[in-house]
Amino acid sequence: MSAGETWTLDKVKELIGDVLRPGRFFVSRDLKLTWEPPAEEEIPWELFRGQLLPVRFSRQTRRFLAWNIYKWENETRADEPLLSVKLDQERGEIHVVRGILAYVWEPFDSGGNVIESREVQRWTRELVGTLRWQDYDEILLVGELEELVWQGLVGTSRLPLNSVETPLPEFVLGRFGYFRYVKREGEQEPIRDWRALLDLPKCYFNRLEQTARSAGTAIDSADGHPFLEHIWLYSILELLLRTMQPSDIDDAVEKLIAVKAHYKWNAELNVPFQCKILFNNTSLTPYTQLPERAFSIFRRLVTREAIPLAGYVDFLRDLIIKLCRHLTAYDLITYHHRGANYPDALVLDQALNELILIAEKSPASFERDGPADAAVARRKRRRALRQGCLLRRYYEGLAVPDAPTTPGENVRVLPAPHVRVPEEQLTNVLKRTRRLYEGESLQGKIRSNVRHLIDESIQDLLDSAEWKLLGQAIFVDRPLDWADDSPHVHSSKLVSHLCFSRSIAERRAHELRQFSDGLGFYISAEKWQKLEELLREPIAGVPVASVAQPPIPIIALSDARNVAADFIVERTYAADWLFWSFASDDLCCRLHLDQGFWQPGLRDKVRATLRMPRDKRDSVIVSFDSKFRRRLELVPDFSQGFTLRHGTSLPRAGLRLLRGWEYSQQYPEGRLHDLTGQRLQIRR
Fold first, then answer.
1. Mean pLDDT on 625-649
2. Phi, psi of 56 (to 5 degrees)
3. Span 555-581, mean pLDDT?
4. What is the distance between the alpha carbons of residues 322 and 458, in angstroms, rounded to a whole number?
5. What is the 3-state secondary structure (H, E, C) of 4-22?
6. Which pLDDT band holds residue 601 (cuts at 50, 70, 90)?
7. CA dihedral angle for residue 350, residue 352, residue 356, residue 357, rounded to 10 degrees
8. CA-based angle 262:267:271, to the nearest 5?
9. Cα–Cα distance between 414 and 369 in angstroms, integer?
10. Among residues 248, 147, 149, 144, which one has the least CA distance to residue 198?
11. Burial of 677 (0-12, 13-18, 19+ CB in 10 A)
12. How far is CA 265 from CA 45, 67, 83, 201, 271, in A?
């Protein structure tokens, strides 16, 4: 079946039933759920900017055929489904909805014609996403529905700011999980034991072999299997870390090693790489033991020589640098509710402790003197030590609540042992009694070998472009969806930008000097003067001061101006993301661009993709090349609404091209092309 063909309701119902059957889920033994057969229901249903209004505020009702998963507590069924797929047969839509038990305020009559309010526990509904089944063929519809069901558990964004972007408490606490793209054929019961999670590769490879046989091709182990590492070792590894107990770690390590030995198609059990993806995408609030369990498994895998020590060190290195860039951009004081939500700072401390212990025992993996072919890797490891120590020292002693949380997370009802944080600690810094890293001075952890390596890392700042790391930060943006009444701000494309601030770099250099003095280093005045000169060198990029300000309160690159006014964009990660999502085969010919300019993967050709002002009321998406010259101007076409691709909302009508610039020997200053009327269509 291809997109645009007529679907039958029976076929749609069959697909929904298969995607939502119990055998596709993990359910812990202490969680009681029931899958109810599809049933007709008429319920309050009213949307405001894409979000479901509470039942008591809804003025409209809607009829659905619903597949509901209910949670039971003390032999009582919840008022709302924990997860639900609702089929609107009249409109041709499929909705994925979830329920969350929360503290809410309700009015009540206290007598004497007086209305007061009180806090009660009540189930609330959240719309995860909507599909129009006529937009997809069968394979795409199944994939998008699986993606929405999975997002119903894990949240719709890797940077959760709103409730629908955050995971279900049952998922965070390791009690409920879903398997995308991995079918347990014939299995009608959910997985109850974490050990069975590591049997899922068998399902994946069986499906892979069936696909290969039907296509008449062979599976070549040398080619690798990208879906295996992305789906199993990322999604399943996260669920494994959440659901297992500390006493299970040794068993988990044995199981992981056995899986690696059995499935030889995957040449290396690349746990460090998958944990990088995991920590980049997972939510750490409410805070659990997930980081500690991950590091414990790593240590045992290294001891058993299942992964090399260098792989673990480089994972810690990348995690620390990413956390430093994140906390430089969204610092705990300006953002994170004035330090109320501080799990990133806790993970930074744990990762840095791991790296310090390894550096003290094996300094040769970090030192400047060594094989030339590994010099870059050793410098990056020293960088992580220096940057991690600087940021940890900066936040040492910060007043924080008893546990990391947010105002939204704090109104969710969580089971024991999680205790609700007093609200006054979130709103009033003076009511906080806990101090970050209290009783764990950083300087007390740094011994001779690490002191030597930090000394070498300071020298790195003086003989390379390393000094830029002092002022780098990563900001995120949603450049596609800036409509005033858009219902898709929580699922539109999220883009990351690497930015640099000279003022922050100068401040970090000053903090570094204080830190080195505290460790007893002697660094000559000439070296500090050289560093100050380097900090004045020009940096190419687009000033954040010139980017557009969104008309609605969403996360945007312009937030960088709240941190430092002198930020510039050095690059957009995956800056060619537009052309992974949209396609136009003859664009290069029309614009006389270099051959392959916009082909996916050629990221050196596209340096940044930013939302820039067009006039006082409007803005456009602008792509810049490696010399930060404008190459294309585009705008999303919202005339046909939105559709989902891989769980991300994209304008169904695609993008409209406005202008393009050609640069060549004949036109060194650039030649402007009017592209009005041309468009990029969504890739299928």
1. 88
2. -70, -15
3. 88
4. 20
5. CCCCCHHHHHHHHHHHCCH
6. very low
7. 20
8. 90
9. 52
10. 248
11. exposed
12. 49, 38, 35, 11, 15
Give bridge partners of residue 114 from the DSSP assignment.
111
Question: Are the CB atoms for 498 and 472 separated by under 8 Å?
Answer: yes
Question: What is the average pLDDT score of the chain?
Answer: 85
Place of tokens 């063929």: 137
- Name which of 24-28, 154-158, 164-168, 522-526 the model is least confident about: 522-526
Q: How confident is the model at residue 207 (pLDDT cuts 50, 70, 90)?
A: low
Token reading at 557: 């690159």
In 13-158 the beta strands, taken as DSSP E runs, fall at 25-27, 32-44, 47-48, 51-52, 61-73, 76-77, 83-88, 93-111, 114-132
Beta bridge partners of 66: 39, 86
How is residue 603 written in tokens? 């990221």
Inter-residue contact 47 to 28 (CB < 8 Å): no
Q: Which residue, 35, 46, 43, 130, is CA-closest to 91?
A: 130
Tokens linked to 343? 């799990």
- Contacts (Cβ under 8 Å, ≥6 apart) of 166: 155, 160, 283, 285, 408, 409
Grouping H, G, I as helix, E, B as strand and the rest as coil, residue 38 is strand
CA distance 570 to 544: 10
Number of C-beta neighbours around residue 261 at 10 A = 10
pLDDT digit string (tens) for 435-456?
999 988 888 889 889 999 998 9
User: Within 13 A of 85's CA, how many CA atoms are on the CB side?
Assistant: 27
CA atoms within 13 A on the CB side of 158: 18
DSSP annotation string for 276-323: HHHHHH----S--SHHHHHHHHHHHHHHTTSS-HHHHHHHHHHHHHHH
Q: Does residue 632 sit in helix, strand or coil?
A: strand
The Cα 537–Cα 399 span in angstroms is 36
Residues 6+ apart with CB under 8 A from 635: 620, 621, 655, 656, 658
Can you point out the beta strands (E) in 133-253? 176-178
Q: For residue range 393-402, what is the model confidence (pLDDT) as tens digits?
A: 999 999 999 9
Report d(CA 501, CA 568) in Å as an integer.
7
Q: What are the residues whose beta carbons fall under 8 Å from the beta carbon of 410, sequence distance 6 or more?
A: 420, 421, 423, 426
Distance CA 555, CA 677 (A): 30
pLDDT of residue 221: 39
Give the other-Cβ count within 10 Å of 575's Cβ: 23
Q: What is the pLDDT of residue 599?
A: 44
Helix (H, G, I), strand (E, B) or coil at 329: helix
pLDDT at 586: 54
| pLDDT digit string, tens, across residues 1-21 | 444 456 889 999 999 999 999
Task: Return d(Cα 329, Cα 318) in angstroms, integer.
Answer: 17
φ, ψ dihedrals at 95, nearest 5°: -110, 140
Nearest-CA neighbor of 684 among 591, 583, 593, 553? 583
Average pLDDT over residues 301-309: 90
Q: What is the pLDDT of residue 225?
A: 42
Which comes out higher in pLDDT, residue 125 or 161? 125
Query: Given this model, what pLDDT does residue 45 score?
Result: 94
Closest CA to 199 of 243, 150, 263: 263
Round to whole Å and give the CA distance between 631 and 605: 10
Assess contact for 297 and 256: CB atoms under 8 A: yes
In this predicted structure, what is the pLDDT of residue 76?
93
As a whole number of angstroms, the distance between CA 554 and CA 644 comes to 19
Residue 674 class from Cβ within 10 Å (0-12 exposed, 13-18 middle, 19+ buried)? exposed
